[in-house]
Design goal:
Elements: H1 3-9, E1 15-19, H2 30-39, E2 41-49, E3 52-54, E4 57-59, E5 62-72, E6 75-85, E7 91-96, E8 103-106, E9 115-119, H3 122-131, E10 138-141, H4 151-154
Antiparallel strand pairs: 1-2, 1-7, 2-5, 3-4, 5-6, 8-9, 8-10
């Protein structure tokens, strides 16, 4: 599916996989594999940005994926985010949707907010907020998915992943 469809239909908090369509090289080809891994991967959708016009230039609409955190002893030293514009040539797939009833914690209200945490429920989200410093945070409850944003609309029919409800209820993966 295209980046434009992800931008239009995938909800914040969804796990999105991306690929350039090339086959994965064998493990013994370390450099080729490392290069392949930079062009193929997955992450949690943390924000969407609308197109912006600046003078004669237009910055296309984009979305950002959180690929992971690196650190030790509970201290995050580096966060890995990748941003794709809606014209990206890569193929995208929605691997997992946020569970209805879970709560998305956004860094701030409005269009400039980013997902900072995905909690199982409102109580867990409020508890998380007491331990982390986001004074302008906004809590958004994930509602039941509509027909145009359901798993069937986001994943092409032949590529639908077999997900159980238990595997999609991992609220802390990729966004903490």
């Amino acid at each position: 599916m295209s980046a434009k469809l992800i931008f239009d239909h995938a909800p914040i908090g969804a796990i999105i996989a991306y690929s350039d369509g090339t086959p994965r090289p064998p493990e013994r080809h370390r450099r080729k594999l490392a290069d392949w891994n930079t062009r193929n991967g997955a992450g949690r959708l943390i924000c969407k940005r609308a197109a912006v016009e600046r003078g004669a230039h237009t910055i296309p609409a984009s979305f950002t994926l959180h690929e992971g955190d690196y650190g030790s002893n509970g201290t995050i030293v580096m966060r890995v985010h990748k941003t794709f514009d809606v014209n990206s040539p890569r193929d995208f797939t929605v691997r997992e949707q946020p569970v209805p009833g879970s709560v998305v914690v956004m860094s701030r209200p409005g269009d400039l907010g980013e997902l900072v945490h995905l909690a199982a429920n409102r109580i867990a989200a409020e508890d998380w907020l007491t331990r982390h410093g986001y004074p302008e945070a906004e809590l958004r409850e994930v509602t039941a998915l509509g027909p145009d944003v359901g798993r069937a609309a986001c994943v092409p029919k032949g590529n639908r992943p077999a997900l159980s409800d238990e595997s999609s209820a991992q609220p802390d993966e990729g966004a903490s």
